[in-house]
Specification:
Pfam families: DUF1329. This is DUF1329 domain-containing protein. 13% of the residues lie in helices and 31% in strands. The protein is an alpha+beta fold. The radius of gyration is 21 Å and the shape is globular.
Length: 469
């Protein structure tokens, strides 16, 4: 590969990130990132030095695109992985495929969400009540409210207000839960739906519900003994308030309202997914506190289009993925990671949950799109409890392009590794094309197609009906 002539010594980028971590500086090292976003396809070149744009330069040739990180060479990128991912490679047989870094930041967003971010840049303010408003005091509209977050709460607001970055998202999820001995303990199909009423890409309020942020539901469709279990979250716009959480359990044939601490428990037996884990922001940001940016650094993240359709050798028809590692060769998905030039490392504590088993969470956030690339939680003793590792893609490659309502390639998560280290149970799941029950993944009108998704999936009556079908 050909590198630019270097104007800076090798460690310049990393030293500058360390200096910036304490002062709330704007994203970018050589120049502010955001003015370059819409300038060119290679819109990171002016913002970062060579060592932060190319893994081969960063590792001084020890790792290059096309390589596979294993226990034999992981030390070369140890500082680019969260502690759990490093342990996965070092001691559990995990492999990570390395690809070229994405230089065009527009490929890291749904196009309507990026357009809203650019349109509304500079219009957000954090109210005295800890909520985000526009300059007129209205609930936030489209895009990231804080493209250049100056503190941990602003960075978390970018995650919280629009999880999937679509006005409506419907994820058909196929999950495999791996026991400590490496065997498959459970396999579930479920559907996760998100409908934002505010913080929408059209800058409008859905059905006049400006006091709410979102409706979110999840219902299980397989296997038979779990099918019908369903849950509904109703989020207030006020981030100091706990969501209303309802669940329908077929065995009891009734809906019940759950306490707030239910957010830190598995949804069904064997799975390690908690409601609190969603998008590293599964709880209202005002129910957590002591936010702080503890570091700025490069990271490895699974963010590129190579992850679409399962990557190398994947089961293209349903977007499933090859697996490897662990005691029986089925603990980890194949994942394609790349060098992310600048991440914020944000810590927070669950101040609104006095009985929460979680003592702290740490989130690594890519400054270019405000999305997290790694997430760890710690128990009350300060020991790492869980990791929740996301993998993203623009849904476009040489074989297939899936477009969103704007006519541009869709963008979303493609898979997750959720590992409870203390129980040594791994849940790995994918956003499949379709799951049991005929439910398909999709976004906005591309999936709605005139359907009344609110009444069909996002009310107490809806989850009752879904549980008895």
């Amino acid at each position: 590969m050909t590198f630019r002539i270097k104007k800076y010594d090798f460690d310049y980028g990393r030293r500058m990130l360390l200096q910036k971590s304490a002062v709330g500086a704007a994203a970018g090292v050589l120049a502010p990132l955001w003015p370059t976003i819409a300038d060119s396809a290679d819109n990171t070149a002016k913002a970062y030095p060579e060592e932060l744009l190319h893994i081969e330069a960063y590792t001084k040739g020890k790792i290059k695109p096309g390589d596979v990180v294993t226990k034999d060479n992981v030390e070369a990128v140890k500082d680019l992985l969260d502690p759990v991912a490093y342990m996965h490679v070092k001691t559990m047989g995990r492999r990570i495929h390395i690809v070229e870094s994405t230089k065009d930041v527009t490929k890291l967003y749904p196009a309507p969400y990026l357009a809203g971010t650019l349109r509304n840049k500079g219009k957000a303010k954090m109210g005295a009540d800890g909520n985000v408003y526009d300059q007129a005091g209205n609930p936030w509209g489209a895009g990231m409210p804080f493209p250049d977050p100056k503190n941990g709460i602003e960075a978390t607001a970018n995650l919280t207000l629009s999880w999937g970055r679509h006005d409506y998202s419907q994820y058909a999820v196929r999950d495999w839960d791996i026991a400590p001995d490496g065997s498959l303990a459970y396999q579930y199909d479920f559907v996760w739906a998100e409908l934002n009423t505010t913080a929408r890409n059209d800058d409008k309020v859905w059905n006049g519900k400006k006091d709410l942020l979102r409706y979110q539901s999840v219902w299980f469709t397989a296997p038979n003994d779990t099918a019908g279990s369903s849950f509904l979250n109703i989020w207030s716009y006020d981030q100091r308030k706990f969501p209303e959480l309802y669940g329908y359990l077929p065995a009891f044939r009734r809906v019940r309202q759950f306490p707030t601490n239910q957010r830190f428990e598995p949804l069904v037996p064997g799975i390690t997914l908690f409601l609190s884990d969603a998008w590293a922001a599964g709880d209202p940001m005002g129910t957590w506190g002591n936010y702080k940016i503890v570091e700025r650094k490069p990271m490895l993240g699974a963010i590129g289009s190579r992850n679409f359709m399962g990557g190398r050798g994947g089961a293209m028809n349903n977007y499933e993925r090859p697996v490897h590692g662990g005691p029986k060769g089925q603990t980890f998905h194949d994942v394609y990671m790349e060098l992310v030039p600048e991440c914020l490392v944000v810590d927070a504590e669950p101040t609104g949950y006095p009985r929460a088993p979680v003592g702290k969470k740490r989130t690594w956030i890519d400054v270019r799109n405000g999305m997290y690339v790694a997430y760890n939680t710690y128990d009350r003793r300060g020991e790492i409890w869980k990791t929740f590792e996301p993998h993203y893609a623009q849904y476009s490659n040489e074989k297939l392009t899936i477009k969103d309502d704007s006519g541009q390639p869709a963008w979303s998560w493609v898979s997750v590794l959720s590992h409870d280290l203390q129980a040594n149970r791994m849940s790995r799941f994918v956003q499949a094309r379709e799951v049991t029950g005929g439910y398909k993944s999709g976004y906005d009108n591309s999936i709605m197609k005139g359907e009344d998704v609110y009444n069909k999936y996002l009310t107490v009556q809806a989850i009752t009906r879904l549980g008895t079908v």
